[in-house]
Amino acid sequence: MPSKEAASTDLDQIQLTQFLSHQHLCDSLTIGEIHILLGYLTLMDLKKGEILSDIGDVGDSLYLVVKGEIAVTFDERGEEGEVVRAASGGLVGVMSFFDKQPRSVRLVAKAPKTQVLKLSRAMYKRMKVEQPYIAINIVEQAIISLDNLFRRVSSDFAQFSHYLYGAGYK
Fold first, then answer.
1. Which pLDDT does position 83 carry in this prediction?
2. Which residue from 9, 88, 113, 139 has the highest number of Cβ atoms inside 10 Å of its Cβ?
3. Which one, of 28, 37, 44, 39, lies nearest residue 109 by Cα?
4. Does residue 1 surpass a pLDDT of 50?
5. Is 96 within 8 Å of 59 (Cβ atoms)?
6. Rounded CA separation 113/25 (Å)
7. Which helix (H) or strand (E) holds 42?
8. Does the predicted model carry a pTM greater than 0.85?
9. Percent of the chain beyond pLDDT 70?
10. In what residue span(s) does the Cyclic nucleotide-binding domain sit (predicted)?
11. Cβ neighbours for 69, distance < 8 A, ≥ 6 positions apart
């Protein structure tokens, strides 16, 4: 399981506020609202190769990549296949978080000193009641994240199909 949840210092709070202020998620939020958002999030440190969430887990959290990369991977007969990588600013763990179904993929840190901001389901439920405007921003970011993933996978599939059945097939 993931490394320790990092203790958040004043310097961390300043750096995270600056980081979030440059993310699409917080485009419409004031600095004060970003500070409120940070109160719902937990900073986590991960080592390269560390599994953030595994296949079969029901997603009780979603994650915003702060530093490093998180790969979304699957297991194919003992071999790891990679669907996509999320770098700084990427949101992962969205589908299982919202549909409460077991994960069909694994979330793995692919860079040393990877950091993510974790939003637990309990904190999200609280946020929906206490800060609905911020919660809507989370949902919008989740939709954008899933749309980007769908477009990348669709493009890869179209290229592969074209190779198999189109001009690339011989």
1. 84
2. 88
3. 44
4. no
5. yes
6. 23
7. strand 42-46
8. no
9. 81
10. 25-127
11. 85, 86, 87, 109, 110, 111, 114
Go through the chain and tell me how many residues it has. 170
* Exposure b/e, 100-121, CB count within 10 A at least 16 = b: eeebebbbbbbbeebbbbbbee
DSSP string, 65-106: EEES-EEEEEEETTEEEEEEEE-TT-EESHHHHHH-PBPSSE
Distance of alpha carbon 96 from alpha carbon 94, whole angstroms: 6
Q: What is the pLDDT of residue 81?
A: 87
Side chain identity at 15, as an amino acid letter?
Q
Written as six digits, the tokens of 58 are 């029901």
Q: At which residue do the structure tokens 């990588």 appear? A: 85
pLDDT of residue 63 exceeding 90, the answer is: yes
Residues 6+ apart with CB under 8 A from 46: 2, 3, 52, 68, 109, 114, 115, 116
Torsion sign across C-alpha atoms 93, 95, 100, 103: negative
Measured CA to CA, the distance from residue 166 to residue 114 in angstroms comes to 41
- Of the pLDDT bands very low, low, confident and very high (cuts 50, 70, 90), residue 106 is very high
Residues 6+ apart with CB under 8 A from 37: 20, 26, 29, 131, 134
